[in-house]
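Hey, does this match?
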Amino acid sequence: MGIQGDHGAALPPPPPIHAGVVPRRCPMNRNDFGSKGQKVQLLTNHFQVRMARSDCHFYQYSVEMAYEDGTAVDAKGVGRGVIDKLHETYKTELGGKQIAYDGESTLFTLGALPRNKLQFTVVLGEQQRSGKAGNPGSPEDNEDPNTGERKRLRRPQRSKTYTVDVSYATKIPLQAITNALRGQDSEHYQEAVRVLDVVLRQHAARRGCLLVRQSFFRNEPKNFFDIGGGVLGCRGFHSSFRATQGGLSLNIDVSTTMIVQPGPVMDFLVSNQNVPHPDQIDWVKAKRMLKNLRITTKTSNLEFKITGLSDKICRDQIFELRQRNGDGQHQSVEITVHDYFVQHHNISLRYSSKYPCINVGRPKRPSYFPIEMCDLVSLQRYTKSLSGHQRASLVEKSRQKPQERMRVLTDALRASNYAADQMLIASGINISIEFAQVEGRILPAPQLKVGSGQDLVPRRGRWNFNNKGLFEPVEALDRWVIVNFSARVDMNMLSRDIVKCGQRKGMKIRDPFKVFQENHQDRRLPAPRRVENMMDSVKNGLPGPPQLILCVLPDRKICDIYGPWKRKALAEIGLVTQCISPQKLNDQYLTNVLLKINAKLGGLNSVLSIEHARNIPFVSEAPTLIIGMDVSNGSPGRTDVPSIAAVVSSRGWPLISRYRASVRTQSPKVEIIDGLFKPDPETNTDDGMIRESLLDFFKSSNKRKPENIIIFRDGVSESQFSQVLNIELDQIKEACKFLEENWNPKFTLVVAQKNHHTKFFQRNSPDNVEPGTVVDNGICHPKNNDFYMCAHAGMIGTTRPTHYQVLIDEIGFSGGDLQDLVHSLSYVYQRSTTAISVVAPVCYAHLAASQVAQFMKFDEFSDTSSSHGGVTSVGSASIPQLPRLHPNVSSSMFFC
């Protein structure tokens, strides 16, 4: 029986998504290695770790800290200082053991402490709590900045006393690492490696570094660069231990984070809000931005945490000042913050009297400082989302050529001086300072087919259409129009050049039916209204719907018109559109535009020769569906913005170059996709994304259902592999059975990871590795089936390979055949004439999620209600739903 749409047995919903799913399947073991390609010797930023002993155990202990009165301590503020002092004071009681502390509630020792439960009293001086040695705290000044009361504390009384309880939790054998390196199942491997990572974090903390997960950042001017808006990029280093075929290695790479520009608070706010003068600062935004940042003041070198801003400006903000009268008794008088600092501290305030004060106190007892007296301390992370300009600047200034990156990494490893760390010495751990050597292979570029059946061989991962036509151009583009939101583009020149360029590529393009210019009065309207007015003009000015609308945007980057325009065209009307904002009209720019247009209208720009000849192992032999899946999460810090899940699937088998997409919203920050299979028992239907893919494949592939399904999953970490196998793959299988109960296609599931820190370098060459470079030995997993692929030519900076991890392979690919398929899928990306860094289905899934996300402004959904496509409840959260694509464009490459 063939695929029958919505008919089939009703099935229960897929299993719930949560972190505690019991793993049922694990990633598959490696079956063999690839052999195709020219061998090449490479260096990689993995450094060999020698383990002199593996017969010992790490002992894990829970740590609880409290003040003298029993109040629990927030260890993040002072924990490292307390534990360092404890270790210094109680060496004998600790049995002389070295310790590694994670900064929160756990410490590790090599060998057991004398007793399972220990209690210590630790006295920590003010300077030790203030973060001067890389341990940020929130000390109080010895004078309240507003009341003026001297606390009159002598030096010994300015110390604080802590009670620290240490309790045995478990022991972790170092042998677990050795077992994992042998390819054996190792129950405690992750815990043992975590201990070593904690040792490196502690080592960095003692050197005054900012710690961000497994990256370390030092407070050195050479590490900072300005990206605008009061934000600095800060270069640091990532380090993590990895089990590889060559043994345990330490992967070290350059890392970058964003920090707040240190210095005067007012200078930061002016730069952050991009205003010419402090009088134009939006103080509501400023309050949100400054909350929880740390400052020092002109009257003290101690640090304070900002809790807010005063309600009134400095010269009007009143507080009660307690002072002694002539009889020695205390009395309270009202005074403004401005007058207090002028009269009692003899500080002349130049400008801040007319601005709010910085509040560093508690809600019921505020403490104010005039803003000009406050300086932001260094190495404070900036966690807000970046503007387009800031992102571009960050990327540009973070780039490093391969040789420069190697030099920086070598210097960093030497400067880290891990050989002197007492915990590493006690553990018998020795870290090499030489880059590991691995053998790579350079796969030959796949041959392409273009117009008139011509063969085209890419050179260094690139090709062009000079004097060549498109493989399958759209039959005729004679009903198209231009809409112009820009005042600076010559429409006559644009339309003429597009027609000429298209004709040279084999596209039969006539002059546009009409050019619609935006009314000058409309340019002051909100973006959705501008789009509505323009679409009304198009409807009223044409006898019928056009094949294509070319939309000229007013800005170079995606502007506020883009989202409403795409929503209107793709979801409501069902029209293919192409947005442009040309700075220069040249042949290369227009060719790139036409590549996108041709793909969106159903054409193909090029295909693989082996695809055309039906000569791809397994894929060409039986109907094969190729799927790319990705989840796009909202901006950092936004928990009210839904995540966007996209599934892109191939169509028109035996082709593997044409795709369509399904997109859904889901709970914020949830990486596992929950919309693959969505059965409704009442209507006996499935509204999941996989059903759409299966039905479209059946319809576009001569009514053949897929016997093989190859899935490329982007954006998941190794800790989520079991959920991908046991939740997502189960949903896909259930979707298949819902359509036909006895249908059991074979699956191959591959995770594509870009978010890792492995790099490759050519020996004695300043250039990046060659496109097509694959590595499946040396630094790959000792047991699992994985490989690294540099399919593209890295023109700028250092090439980042994609790490492919094969979780399941029921189809039965050899290692070489699967690597060839991955390499080939990097050449079917219809938007460009270069090989891309990850397989095209994954790139398309990312594009589809990003573009459809522009349909809605999620800021409007923080109150969980909206008119944009409805709201669906998931648990206790309400998820705004994306409007579905119009049937006219739902199977098109609208995302291209």
Observations:
- DSSP finds 19 helices and 43 strands in the chain.
- The CA atoms of residues 611 and 800 lie 27 Å apart.
- Residues 721-739 form the longest helix (19 residues).
